[in-house]
Amino acid sequence: MAKATGEWHDYMAEVYIGLGSNMGDRENYLRRAVAELASRPGVRLLTCSSIYETSPVSPVEQGNYLNMVARIACDLVPLELLTVCEEIEELLGRKETPYVPLGPRPIDLDILLWEDLIYQSPELTIPHPYLTVRRFVLIPLLEIDENLRLPGGDLLKSYLSELSLDDKVEFYANYDWVSIAHAP
């Protein structure tokens, strides 16, 4: 359960981060992003889903994505974790790529869920606003915990059956990400 603002740094919250890449060496971008995330102060990598190859959800012509989800424990506040995610994206070349809404990108990190927290600011919304309408997010998320719920109690797996099967979400690979992230 999320704590009051003054208590954030005394508590390790369980948070789910979506990762995606559809430019260059997609798998390497994911590997490097997971390693960077695991190396940050205040963040502990707990587990990761398999990688899935997915079709883009964009009118912009682009290649398929590799998507996955990481479950972390962190003692950061939401905007601090957002900054960590943005720093990792920049480190891996995201800022060098011209910004196109829903366009191709070397790496993308999105905060999906933060326990039972509902959070909204101009920079960040938790739960992620498109969480329940994207198969490429729900499938890896539910692989980690098939009984995950939205704040308020709705089972996430109930949303999956409502989504079109037209969007490609195919198993790509599975690794022991925690060991890889902590390897010398």
TrEMBL record:
Positions in coiled-coil regions: none
Reaction(s) catalysed (UniProt annotation): 6-hydroxymethyl-7,8-dihydropterin + ATP = (7,8-dihydropterin-6-yl)methyl diphosphate + AMP + H(+)
Domain 7,8-dihydro-6-hydroxymethylpterin-pyrophosphokinase residues, every copy: 16-145
Pfam families in UniProt: HPPK
Domain of life: Bacteria
Keyword Transferase assigned: yes
Gene3D superfamilies the UniProt entry points to: 7,8-Dihydro-6-hydroxymethylpterin-pyrophosphokinase HPPK
InterPro entries assigned: Hppk, Hppk_sf
Mitochondrion as UniProt keyword: no
GO molecular function: 2-amino-4-hydroxy-6-hydroxymethyldihydropteridine diphosphokinase activity; ATP binding; kinase activity
Keyword tags: ATP-binding, Folate biosynthesis, Kinase, Nucleotide-binding, Transferase
UniProt enzyme class: transferase
Pathway involvement of the protein, from the record: Cofactor biosynthesis; tetrahydrofolate biosynthesis; 2-amino-4-hydroxy-6-hydroxymethyl-7,8-dihydropteridine diphosphate from 7,8-dihydroneopterin triphosphate: step 4/4
EC number: 2.7.6.3
GO process annotations (BP): folic acid biosynthetic process; tetrahydrofolate biosynthetic process
Name of the protein this chain belongs to: 2-amino-4-hydroxy-6-hydroxymethyldihydropteridine diphosphokinase
